[in-house]
Every structure is written in structure tokens, then in C-alpha cells.
Recover the amino acids of this structure.
């Protein structure tokens, strides 16, 4: 049995006292008295806490050692017998901390072959929005997916599902602002539901919205579709309103006052035509109707300083969400996409602002069920990335309002592909770059490669000229990944202290 390669699921180690095991070179270790935090970034599973005796057992395999030889020295320690210690060794193997061959000095790239049993569909159902965010990649053309296009799109999804036996489908209504074309969402839902009624495919529906347009009809649709709602924000209060202003105020957004450092000035006081106060009211409407929205928080050069307040608002109110770090250093993605900007200062700023956020959230009053309740976009903490951070060109299908396919939501107005009856094969045509062809090899020797997989390939292509090479945010990733792991460990300790371990996965205290 070889446990040195990345599996799809943790293996069951078969007890062999003659086997020689080795500590993984990739394991992250951090002292959190009275425990040690262990995390295998290239292996399924979140960090665990181990006691000092388990740490000593683990360290005895540093240079490789036979199982039986190590266990003979541990028999009787802390009251544990031989078989109990053997069980500990088994678990260290199952979690990827011990392996039966030494790890190579670099990762070996492997082609990504998704099972095609699941499909993630980004449905760009319209091309317009009631807000005028300066960085938006969507052209405001006031076009939407008409019924004939919906019919043909539903037919293609159905054919692909039947061809490959797809079992799970995620449909994301997006735009633009999808709630402005609610009849199209309703029609699409009814058509696809009917079309797949005789299959075993399970469809999960979600709406990606700016949160400004919540009414009774929308609430009825959410209830009928059993859909989830993701609301995008650009920060807390004034930080949000720096960008997310109503379209009728597009000119005024250029003359917004400088954001005050005075917390009492937060909110909508200086930006009465921004959308922050509206989405807050709508979130309360959603919550009163039993809907807790998922928050997609966009963080950029002008908004990252508001992270602590944003985190306080999100997690202090029991919400969950993902933090997205934007790549463009200027307000317009187009103006910043074709120049090789210096990202060092930006990474330093992000590190400083994320650190303040982590310190805030480390207070015991925040009970955050990690990793689901707080994610950092594009990072794979609980399962190793397949050498690419997303499903671009494979099982992530981006369908435009006219029925053609794009490689990514950011590229919907660039080159597109006319789909065939197999959407998986068509998606492959939208993105020809492959992680097998790397612009540099330095990522393959990084401890955190299987967590970030070099970051966003579209952003890498635009900023560094190659889809698969070291991300312009690399130095920030090298900070935030281990910092998130330590944050997770802190929350494990707090849960154990407060006897709340049932809400946490991965607690080890042998």
C-alpha cells in the first residue's frame, strides 16, 4: 500500500508491525499548549490537535522507523497498551501525517479528470444590473435569456445529465442582477424540473444577488425552489458603498468622500445613494422568513481595511460566507488586466488587514463552524486541490444569456463557444490551458500547493501571462493559509474548553 500520493479519500491503514513509516514532509506543525496542531495540506481532512505523548510517538518516525519497533518503546506509557498505541499510529496514517514512503521534494502534476457525476452551472441569465460597480466585468446591455434559449439550454443540460449519469447539479442564477428577471428564473426552474423528473439527478438552486431586490414574489420562488441565496458585499458600511451604488448615481460615485476611520461614521451616513442600508433591511426580511443568506465578501485594495468590521457584522450575526480577494489593483478590471503590476504592497496590506480580522474572530464570543462557515475563495483546506483551484474548462459550465459558453464568469464578454449536446466537452473548448503545462515549477515545491493550486488561472493569465504559474498573490497565500489553520486550531481549543466539541470536526486529544 502506498500512502504518499494524494487520495480521493483517506485510506484505511492495515496494521503491519514490520512496515516502515515516515513523517510527511508537508505536514504543518504548530504548538498550541497543551497540544500540538497537525495539518496535512495535501491530504483530506482539517487540522487536528494531539497531546504531547502522541506528538512524541509521531516524532519517532521522523527518519523512518518500523511500526513494531516504535510501539515497543511506547507500550505502557500513559496507561495505554500496545494495541491502543497501534490504533494511534493507524489514525496518524489515515490522516496523512505518517506515510509508508518518504515524500518527494516536489509534487508531481496530475491531470484533473472530474467524475462527471456532478455539474456546476453558472447561468448568466441577464446582462444588466441596478447597481453600477466600477470594477464589474459585465457589460450593461439590458439583454436577458429568452424562453427559446432557456428551452435549448435545458435540453442540453438534460442530454448531458443522461449521457454521463450526472447525479448532482448546482444551478447558480447570476448576471447582471438575476432578480431583475425573475420570470426567466421561474421559467427555467419549471422547465428543468420537468425535464429531469424521470432521472435520479438532484438539483440544488442558488441565486447570486446584490441583495437590493427582495419582494414577495422572490420569496415565494425561493421557497418553491428550496433555493439558497448568496449576497455579494464589498465591505462593511462605507466600504460597501464606495462601489455598490445605484446605477442612476453612476457619476456621483466618483466624488464620494474619503472613508472615515471613525467607527461612528460607518453605515450609510455619507453615501445615501449606496446600497448598504437597503441590503441590511433585506437581509432582515430574509431572516424573518427563515432564510440565512450566504455572504460573498469582496476584498480589494480600497476595502480590505474594513475586514474587522465586516467580520464582526457577518459572524456576530450568525451568518456564513466566503471572502474573495480581488486581483485587479484598480477600480476597473479591464484597465488593470494587461499590465504587470507590483503586487508586493498589496499582499502586505492584505496580510495586515486579515491579521486584524483573525485577531477579532479569535475572541471566544464568535462560534464559527469551520471551514464551511468561513471560507477564503479558491483555497482548499479540507480536501487537496486537483492542481487547479476551480472547475474551469471541466465541470464548471458558464452559460451566457444567449446560450453560448464562456470559460469563467469574468470572461463572459470575451471569446465564447457554441455548445454541443455534451456540455462537459463544450466546456473543455472554452479553456484550453492545462495545469500540465506550467509557466514555472516553483509552486510544485511549496508546502501549500495543494491548498491554492497556484490560484486563479484567469487572473494569472492576465497579470503574469500564463494560467498556471506562481500567483501574484503568492506571498499573501503563504501568510493566510497557515494563519487560517492556526485560527482553526484556536477555535478547536475554545470548543474543547467550552465542551462544544460536537460542533467541530477533527478534534484529536489522545
Amino acid at each position: 500500500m502506498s500512502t504518499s500520493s494524494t487520495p480521493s479519500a483517506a485510506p484505511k491503514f492495515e496494521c503491519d508491525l514490520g512496515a516502515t513509516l515516515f513523517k510527511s514532509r508537508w505536514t504543518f506543525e504548530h504548538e498550541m499548549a497543551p497540544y500540538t496542531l497537525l495539518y496535512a495540506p495535501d491530504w483530506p481532512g482539517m487540522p487536528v490537535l494531539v497531546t504531547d505523548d502522541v506528538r512524541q510517538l509521531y516524532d519517532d518516525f521522523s527518519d523512518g522507523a518500523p511500526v513494531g519497533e516504535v510501539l515497543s518503546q511506547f507500550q505502557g506509557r500513559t496507561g495505554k497498551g500496545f494495541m491502543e498505541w497501534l490504533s494511534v499510529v493507524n489514525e496518524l496514517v489515515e490522516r496523512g501525517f505518517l506515510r509508508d514512503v518518504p515524500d518527494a521534494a516536489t509534487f508531481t502534476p496530475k491531470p484533473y479528470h472530474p467524475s462527471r457525476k456532478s455539474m456546476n452551472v453558472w447561468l448568466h441569465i441577464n446582462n444588466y444590473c441596478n447597481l453600477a460597480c466600477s470594477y464589474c466585468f459585465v457589460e450593461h446591455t439590458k439583454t436577458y435569456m429568452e424562453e427559446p434559449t432557456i428551452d435549448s439550454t435545458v435540453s442540453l443540460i438534460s442530454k448531458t445529465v443522461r449521457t454521463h449519469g450526472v447525479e448532482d447539479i448546482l444551478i447558480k442564477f447570476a448576471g447582471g442582477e438575476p432578480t431583475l428577471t425573475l420570470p426567466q428564473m421561474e421559467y427555467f426552474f419549471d422547465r428543468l424540473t420537468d425535464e429531469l423528473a424521470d432521472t435520479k439527478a438532484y438539483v440544488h438552486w442558488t441565486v447570486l444577488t446584490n441583495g437590493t431586490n427582495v419582494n414577495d414574489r422572490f420569496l415565494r420562488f425561493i421557497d418553491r425552489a428550496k433555493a439558497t441565496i448568496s449576497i455579494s458585499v464589498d465591505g462593511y458600511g462605507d466600504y460597501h458603498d464606495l462601489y455598490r451604488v445605484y446605477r442612476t448615481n453612476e457619476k456621483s460615485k466618483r466624488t464620494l468622500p474619503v472613508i472615515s476611520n471613525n467607527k461612528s461614521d460607518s453605515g450609510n451616513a455619507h453615501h445615501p445613494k449606496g446600497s448598504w442600508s437597503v441590503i441590511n433591511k433585506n437581509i432582515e426580511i430574509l431572516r424573518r422568513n427563515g432564510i440565512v443568506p450566504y455572504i460573498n465578501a469582496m476584498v480589494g485594495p480600497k476595502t480590505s481595511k474594513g475586514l474587522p468590521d465586516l467580520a464582526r457584522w457577518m459572524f456576530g450575526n450568525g451568518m456564513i460566507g466566503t471572502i474573495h480577494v480581488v486581483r485587479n489593483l484598480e477600480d476597473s478590471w479591464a484597465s488593470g488586466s494587461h499590465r504587470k503590476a507590483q503586487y508586493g504592497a498589496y499582499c502586505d496590506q492584505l496580510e495586515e488587514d486579515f491579521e486584524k480580522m483573525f485577531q477579532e474572530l479569535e475572541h471566544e464570543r464568535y462560534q464559527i463552524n469551520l471551514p464551511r462557515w468561513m471560507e477564503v475563495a479558491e483555497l482548499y483546506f479540507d480536501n487537496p486541490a486537483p492542481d487547479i483551484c476551480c472547475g474551469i474548462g471541466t465541470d464548471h459550465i458558464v452559460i451566457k444569456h444567449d446560450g453560448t459558453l464562456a470559460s469563467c464568469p469574468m470572461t463572459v464578454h470575451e471569446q465564447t463557444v457554441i455548445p454541443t449536446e455534451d456540455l462537459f466537452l463544450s466546456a473543455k473548448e472554452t479553456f484550453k490551458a492545462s495545469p500540465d503545462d506550467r509557466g514555472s515549477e516553483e509552486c510544485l515545491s511549496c508546502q501549500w500547493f495543494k491548498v491554492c493550486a497556484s490560484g486563479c488561472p484567469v487572473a494569472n493569465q492576465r497579470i503574469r501571462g500564463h494560467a498556471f504559474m506562481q500567483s501574484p498573490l503568492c506571498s499573501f497565500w503563504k501568510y493566510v493559509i497557515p494563519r487560517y489553520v492556526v485560527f482553526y486550531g484556536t477555535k478547536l481549543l475554545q470548543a474543547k474548553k467550552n465542551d462544544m466539541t460536537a460542533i467541530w470536526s477533527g478534534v484529536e486529544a489522545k
Notes: The chain is about 30% helix and 15% strand. The radius of gyration is 24 Å. The CA atoms of residues 30 and 37 lie 5 Å apart.
